[in-house]
């Protein structure tokens, strides 16, 4: 697993969702993963019928990628499609930094992301217990670099304000029932880390792309339609 990550939340309306997903899968994620230091991306959708909420997780080679010249150049020169999408996004939150702890391996199709409201301190005993739960695949604890995540850019100005968070706990499993069990069994311990876990949303995998899958000899727009979603 990568040494650093960038996590981004946003909501769109049901009417905007197809355009948003086409932008993600046909332009934006390929553009980002093509930047040096961006190793992979995964997109998750919240299991919330009343809102279209997405979480994008980028694997980074190092926290310094957040302020690298190549990345900042893209953030300050958003594409026309990005310029149209950015003002649509609501409840936008963004934070990246060092992955402090990893338990398990691989990726689960189901995710419980918990934003932590304070410094997490000694979380190791709890993470060991979480990693031992049935059907839990992997756990990552991200410490957000507030300075690196908060650099002003032209793209950020299009959104009109981003929320952030001190840390993020990602719990991945093979099914959402396992994540509900984790929440029920460890609710108090997670609350002591500052997790807002009264009624957290669970997320399911929607799309992924690795840097090695990008074909440098072909433009991003020509990616085969066989890997793109068909939405009504």
Question: Which terms summarize this structure?
Answer:
disordered C terminus, single chain, Alpha-Beta Plaits, alpha+beta, 232 residues, 7 helices
Question: How is the secondary structure organized here?
Answer:
Layout: E1 4-12, H1 17-33, E2 38-46, E3 52-60, H2 69-75, H3 80-85, E4 90-104, E5 110-116, H4 124-131, E6 136-144, H5 146-149, H6 154-159, E7 167-173, H7 176-192, E8 203-210
Antiparallel strand pairs: 1-3, 1-4, 2-3, 2-8, 4-6, 5-7, 5-8, 6-7
What percent strand? 25-35%
Profile the largest sheet: 8 strands, antiparallel, barrel
What's the tally of helices? 7
Label the structural class. alpha+beta
Q: Biggest sheet, strands in spatial order?
A: 1-3-2-8-5-7-6-4
What is the CATH domain class? Alpha Beta
Q: Distance N terminus to C terminus? A: 35 Å
Order of helices and strands: EHEEHHEEHEHHEHE
User: What is the 3D shape?
Assistant: globular
What is the number of beta strands? 8
The level of helicity is 25-40%
Mean pLDDT figure: 90
What is the domain total for the residues? 1
Report the C-alpha radius of gyration, rounded.
Answer: 17 Å
CATH third-tier fold name: Alpha-Beta Plaits
Q: Which spans have pLDDT < 50 for at least 5 consecutive residues?
A: 220-232
């Amino acid at each position: 697993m990568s040494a650093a990550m960038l996590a981004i939340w946003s909501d769109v309306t049901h009417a905007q969702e197809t355009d948003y997903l086409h932008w993600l899968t046909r332009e934006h994620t390929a553009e980002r993963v093509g930047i040096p230091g961006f190793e992979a991306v995964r997109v998750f959708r919240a299991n919330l019928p009343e809102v279209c909420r997405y979480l994008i997780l980028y694997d980074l080679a190092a926290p310094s990628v957040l302020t690298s010249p190549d990345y900042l150049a893209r953030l300050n020169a958003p594409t026309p499609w990005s310029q149209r999408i950015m003002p649509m996004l609501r409840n936008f939150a963004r934070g990246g930094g060092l992955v402090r702890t990893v338990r398990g391996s691989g990726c689960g199709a189901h995710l419980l992301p918990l934003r932590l409201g304070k410094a997490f301190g000694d979380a190791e005993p709890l993470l060991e217990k979480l990693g031992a739960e049935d059907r839990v695949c992997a756990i990552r604890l991200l410490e957000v670099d507030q300075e690196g995540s908060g650099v002003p850019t032209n793209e950020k100005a299009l959104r009109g304000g981003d929320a952030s968070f001190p840390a993020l706990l990602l719990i991945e499993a093979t099914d959402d029932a396992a994540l509900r069990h984790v929440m029920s069994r460890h609710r108090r311990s997670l609350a002591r880390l500052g997790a807002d876990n009264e009624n957290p949303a669970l997320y399911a995998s929607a799309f992924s792309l690795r840097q090695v899958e990008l074909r440098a000899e072909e433009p991003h727009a020509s990616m085969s339609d066989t890997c793109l979603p068909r939405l009504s």
